[in-house]
Write a structure and sequence with these properties.
Layout: H1 3-6, H2 34-38, H3 56-69, E1 73-77, H4 80-88, E2 96-100, H5 105-112, H6 114-117, E3 121-125, H7 131-136, E4 141-147, H8 159-168, E5 172-176, H9 181-184, E6 194-198, E7 212-216, H10 219-232, H11 238-249, H12 251-269, E8 275-279, H13 289-295, E9 302-307, H14 310-319, E10 324-325, E11 335-337, H15 349-355, E12 361-365, H16 371-383
Parallel strand pairs: 2-3, 2-4, 4-5, 5-6, 10-11
Antiparallel strand pairs: 1-7, 6-7, 8-9, 9-12, 11-12
Length: 389
């Protein structure tokens, strides 16, 4: 099967008990175990005992994402950050983590605050240059965290090369695949050990659920994360699991339309006099375009651009009509984010400036509106900012 067919035919097409073409929502906190005790003292424990350790609806989602990513085991969590935090829970005090420097602000925050207090140390490297990864490895380094395209500057990392460097050094490689989803990119096939998603974004696709997903390449890593999931308990509820399952079914048609629109909008933004830079892997002059094309089936539906002045950026965010100035991305509606005040607000200003995350930067998650309407709206809004030059 091609990946578009797998989104629909993944082993959970119909409920075995009723024939329902949607996975049932098993809304329960616990399960009757009478049969277990009738069978005697040596009876095997049932698959489902308590909903924190397992739920049929959540299991369907976990098996679906594992199938789509080509992994051994899948896990569903209460948010993308809960997914990342739970994965980091397999490491110990004194371990060292290397992460790409141009990365989601929530990842930077959890490494530099919560886990830092527990003695898990971290450092950051330029993931566009894999050779810097080699230099960043220390004797107690245990893992590397990658994200491509990166958030919010859409930088591209050579996953096959970086994961090979990690493997040769005995490191576990984690890849945030939120922007691309398994429809466009499957990091486990490129050598990664663990894939993480904020399923709140494109996988859910409708801005109506908060969720995180994890897939491990090996059963051994799966057992480690399973222990954290059950013990830490940041699990996804059955109704939210069902919402993500529903979103996955339409992922192909949504992303096909969204990235086609993103390509057209990015090219148009390059011609706008108010815009100084455009960041999108589908553009001919993007430095990571060739690498992205070698490892992904598209450029995705997220782009960023910089206006010439901060006032123009604020003017755009305050007056745009067909984009919601908001946190998050990946919904059916276009979302315009302001990283310095939103996704990367917790990052120190000096670090943001060093990375190029300035107060002129706007990140756009392109939705399903008509492309020409979005361009006309953006044009009107940006032109109104010319007075701020």
């Amino acid at each position: 099967m091609h990946i578009g067919t797998k989104l629909i035919h993944n082993g959970h097409e119909a409920d075995a008990a009723t024939g329902a073409v949607n996975v049932p929502i098993v809304q329960t906190s616990t399960f009757d175990q009478k049969k277990r005790f009738k069978e005697g003292a040596h009876a095997q424990a049932p698959e489902f005992e308590y909903a924190r350790s397992g739920n049929p609806t959540r299991k369907a989602l976990e098996e679906t994402i594992a199938f789509l990513e080509g992994g051994a085991k899948g896990f569903a969590f209460a948010s993308g950050v809960a997914a990342l935090s739970s994965v980091l829970g397999i490491f110990a005090t004194g371990d060292h983590i290397i992460a790409a420097q141009d990365i989601y602000g929530g990842t930077w925050r959890i490494l530099n605050t919560f886990y830092k207090r527990w003695g898990l140390t971290s450092s950051f490297f330029d993931a566009t240059d894999p050779q810097t990864l080699k230099k960043a490895i220390q004797p107690h380094t245990k893992a590397v965290i990658l994200e491509t395209p990166s958030n919010p500057l859409l930088k591209i990392t050579d996953l096959a090369l970086c994961t090979k460097i990690a493997q040769d050094a005995g490191l576990i490689s984690l890849v945030d695949n939120t922007f691309m989803t398994p429809y466009l990119q499957r990091p486990l096939e490129l050598g990664a050990d663990i894939v993480i998603h904020s399923a709140t974004k494109f996988l859910g696709g409708h801005s109506d659920v908060i969720a995180g997903l994890v897939v491990t390449k090996s059963a051994v890593l799966g057992r480690s994360i399973s222990a954290v999931q059950t013990g830490f308990g940041a699990v996804l509820g059955p109704h939210d699991s069902w919402l993500v399952l529903r979103g996955i079914k339409t992922l192909k048609v949504r992303l096909d339309a969204q990235q086609a629109s993103a390509q057209k909008i990015a090219a148009w933004l390059q011609t706008n006099p108010v815009v100084s830079e455009v960041f999108y892997p589908g553009l001919a002059d993007h430095p990571g375009r060739t690498t992205n094309e070698s490892q992904a089936a598209g450029a995705g539906a997220v782009l960023s651009f910089k206006t010439k002045t901060p006032e123009q950026a604020l003017q755009f965010l305050g007056n745009v009509e067909y984009a919601a100035p908001a946190e998050s991305l990946g919904g059916v509606e276009t979302i315009a984010s302001y990283p310095v005040r939103m996704s990367h607000a917790s990052m120190p200003e000096a670090e943001r400036q060093r990375l190029g995350i300035s107060d002129t930067l706007i990140r756009i998650s392109v939705g399903l509106e008509d492309t020409d309407d979005l361009i006309a709206d953006f044009d009107r809004t940006l032109r109104s900012g010319t007075a701020c030059v």
